[in-house]
Design goal:
By secondary structure, this protein is of the alpha+beta class. It has four helices and 18 strands. The protein is elongated, with a radius of gyration of 35 Å. This is BIG2 domain-containing protein.
Length: about 260
C-alpha cells in the first residue's frame, strides 16, 4: 500500500466468496525539522546559485513543502520564491527559509565582482602594459612598456646609410654626393618582437582578471559622508546567464546602494 493523501478509506481483499474489509486512516505528515542544502559562505557580485531545503517528518521521512524565502538585505542578495539567489552588492547578509514556523538560514559574505576581461583587453591594446596595470601587475606592465618601446625604437632608429659619390675619389665630399639611401635592417624583426610581446601581455592581463576586485576610476562624496559615487567604466559591463548588466556608476547613500 502507498499512502497518497490524508483521509479515511477502506482496503478490500476478496478471495472467492470471502471478503475482508479494513478501515485505514491516513494522517497528514507534519514538518518537524528542516535543513538547508550545502551552500558556499562567500559569493562575488554577479554570482547566482540555487538554495534548496529538506523538510523532514517526526520519523525522518522527507515531506514535500514549499518554503518562504527571505533575505535580511535585498541590496546584497536577492532571493526568488524558488530559492534562486543572486548577489547584487557587497557585504554580509543572511537568507532564511520558513515552513510552518520552522526556519533554516545561511549567512553569506559577498565580495566585489571580478575585474572585467574586456577592460583588460582594451587597455592592453590602447597602450602596452595597460591591461597588466589594470589587473594589479605593475612590474609586468612596466616591463611590457619598455620591451615594446625598445623593439619599436630599434626597428625605426637603427639605420644603414649608404652614400653614393659621383667622382671616383677616396674622399666623398658633400659636393660630389649623388645619392643617399637609408635602410632599416631591423624593422621587420623589431615589429615582430613588439607584436609578440604585446600579444603575451594581452593574454597575461586577461588571465589576471580572475579573482580580482573591480577598478574604481574615481570616487566623489560629500563632506558629511552621506553619499558616495564610484565610477566603474572598465568594469561596468558584465553578464550572468542570458542577461547583460551595465554598472558604470555605483551610488551609495546612507549606507545603502
Amino acid at each position: 500500500l502507498e499512502a497518497l493523501m490524508p483521509g479515511r478509506t477502506q482496503v478490500i481483499s476478496q478471495v472467492g466468496d470471502s471478503v475482508a474489509v479494513a478501515q485505514v486512516l491516513v494522517s497528514d505528515r507534519t514538518v518537524r525539522s528542516m535543513l538547508m542544502s550545502a551552500l558556499p559562505d562567500t559569493l562575488r557580485v554577479g554570482d547566482e546559485i540555487a538554495a534548496r531545503t529538506i523538510t523532514l517528518s517526526h520519523d525522518g521521512l522527507d515531506v514535500p513543502a514549499v518554503p518562504l524565502w527571505s533575505s535580511t538585505d535585498s541590496l546584497i542578495l536577492r532571493v526568488a520564491p524558488n530559492g534562486n539567489i543572486e548577489a547584487v552588492g557587497t557585504g554580509t547578509t543572511r537568507i532564511t527559509a520558513t515552513v510552518n514556523g520552522l526556519s533554516a538560514s545561511h549567512q553569506f559574505n559577498v565580495m566585489s565582482g571580478r575585474k572585467s576581461w574586456g577592460g583588460a583587453f582594451a587597455l592592453s591594446l590602447i597602450f602596452p602594459g595597460g591591461g597588466q596595470f589594470y589587473v594589479g601587475h605593475p612590474v609586468r606592465g612596466v616591463f611590457t612598456m619598455l620591451a615594446v618601446g625598445g623593439a619599436v625604437a630599434s626597428s625605426l632608429l637603427i639605420k644603414d646609410i649608404t652614400v653614393h659619390c659621383g667622382a671616383r675619389t677616396s674622399v666623398c665630399t658633400p659636393g660630389n654626393v649623388v645619392r643617399r639611401t637609408e635602410e632599416l635592417p631591423y624593422e621587420t624583426i623589431g615589429r615582430a618582437a613588439a607584436a609578440a610581446i604585446l600579444f603575451l601581455s594581452v593574454v597575461d592581463a586577461v588571465l589576471g582578471t580572475r579573482g580580482r576586485a573591480p577598478l574604481t576610476i574615481a570616487t566623489l562624496s560629500d563632506a558629511s559622508g552621506g553619499w558616495t559615487a564610484d565610477f566603474l567604466p572598465l568594469d561596468g559591463v558584465g553578464s550572468s546567464k542570458q542577461r547583460l548588466r551595465f554598472t558604470l556608476l555605483r551610488l551609495t547613500t546612507g549606507g545603502a546602494r
